[in-house]
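Dear all,

This email documents one entry for the complex benchmark we are building for the journal club exercise. For each entry we list the sequence lines for every component of the assembly. Then comes the predicted three-dimensional structure of the complex as a token string, followed by one or two observations. Please use this as the template for your own entries, and keep the labels exactly as they appear.
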Amino acid sequence: MSWRNFLLVALLVAAAGMVLPRVLENPYYFFAGYVVLQYVVIATGWNILGGYAGYTNFGTSAFFGAGVYTAAFLIKAFEAPLLVQVLAAAGIGMLLGLVTGYLTLRIQGVYFAIATVALVVVLETVVHNSDYLGGASGLTTIAPPAPAWFAGPTQYVFCVMLVLALVAVGIARAIEHSWVGRSLRAIRASEPAAEACGVPTLRMKLAACAISGGVIAMAGAPYPYYASHVDPLSAFSLTIGLNALAMPLIGGTRSWIGPVLGAVLLASVQQITTVTISSEFNILAVGLMLIAFVVLAPEGILGLVAELRERVGRRRATT
Amino acid sequence: MSAIVEIRGVEKRFGAIRALGPVNLSLQPGERLGLIGPNGSGKTTLINCLSGLFAANAGTIVFEGRDITQEPAHVRARMGIARSFQIPRPFTGMSVIENLLVPMDYLPIEAGAREGRAMEILSSVGLAGRRDAPAEALSQLELRKLELARALVIEPKVLVADEAMAGLSEGEINDVLALLMRLNERGVAIIMIEHIMHAVMRFSQRVVCLETGRIIAEGLPQAVAQDKHVQKVYFGERAGR
Ligand SMILES: Nc1ncnc2c1ncn2[C@@H]1O[C@H](COP(=O)(O)OP(=O)(O)OP(=O)(O)O)[C@@H](O)[C@H]1O
Ligand SMILES: [Mg+2]
């Protein structure tokens, strides 16, 4: 897909999203759709570091939670508008990524993964013990009314998340198609070889970590508006960390479309099972799907598609 | 003529084990140096210290009169120190030509000229026909060629080939030797680490032999080959296999 086509599709999707609240009456669809889009942002952000550069982040919920609480703080302290919340959350997420990266990415391998888990615990504890942020019981965040165009706050925040999803995917795609993406792929394949080719690996990893953290935190920013209440348990939920890595792995980590596919698929299934079966069933479903993909299709849906294409091509060539 | 590389008192320890050094070694511009020694004698470790993948525990490394001991590997690469890896480390998930574009991203080459440059280098190692093949699909021989090609992209002043010919046939060895000779004629200093004796002996103007991290002999290829100590630790071991 060329940039022109990509932008065209993105604009069409955005336009469709803006019109949808006028066509679709039931706010539940927007309530559920918000979560799906939120996961598109999270999975896309995760993949910039976890997929392109090959550094697994188990602590996605630390970045997400940081975004949630940055927004909640800004609402409580300044009644800041949503756009400011989103930008501030992205900034905090980048900073957090930079600091975590600087402390751990100098060492290759598993240390980063371990540190990301620790980060969740640290941040959650901080919030737990902060009276200003509501401690364990959380904080009620009264959202300002939605702009008149939208039927209600849910429809509005759905559209905001849709724009964030398009921005996130645009960032991921731009990285993938640039020299930055190429350097990250080189790092994923072999860090010593990348260094020997002149790639400043530490700097590139830090950049990836910061951008990834910024995008994930951005996904958390509209949450206080969406839920009207934030608490540490849901902001730093392990489900987010699990989904963040399951979705790109299931979709495919090599290209921006992989995390999008994985997120839409997995999050939709979760939204349906939450209504029809139970929310506990979600984790089990994700776990089973993840195992199935790791065993049967380690390159995710994208890998399956590529393999299928190749087979069809070969069959055509022989007949 | 002043040396292009000077290694002074360089040591590398892994825990309590001293794998290398102290080593003193200099390389002249445009020189062809053979580096031999039994398995585990520290050849690759020395090269890792030179290229910056390992930080030496002691000593200094000077390149073109500049102390580069503290410089990270990517800076040394851009200064003109290139190396191939003993075990090929291709950039998987990329095509062959994209492998060469990685180093080019950090060089002042016009965007329009990159593919042409990359193709020239691929042709010189005989990989032109594989330009769009995924790196995962290459054979052992092709991987070794890719290692060399990727090292050549940065137009190095010093090239270290770490066992670039291991596992190749006689004909293929001759091809690689000819390629390295052509490069050398253009003024590139080459350090060849090799277990294939006749190749090193033919190629090198000077040979250095390492054993347990120290230089035990240095001089003209024939002289080193005839050195008693070298024969004992090196050829003795080889003959005993
Ligand atoms: N990263 C490392 N960690 C620990 N020990 C190492 C490491 N790299 C090398 N060594 C040790 O240092 C010593 C020298 O190894 P080196 O790889 O330099 O030998 P070599 O001369 O290249 O051998 P070969 O001919 O087998 O390639 C060996 O004893 C090896 O086990
Ligand atoms: Mg070696």
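Observations: The pocket of adenosine-5'-triphosphate (ligand 1) is lined by residues B 14, 19, 37, 39-45, 86 (CB under 6 Å). Residues 6 and 170 of chain A are 9 Å apart (CA to CA).
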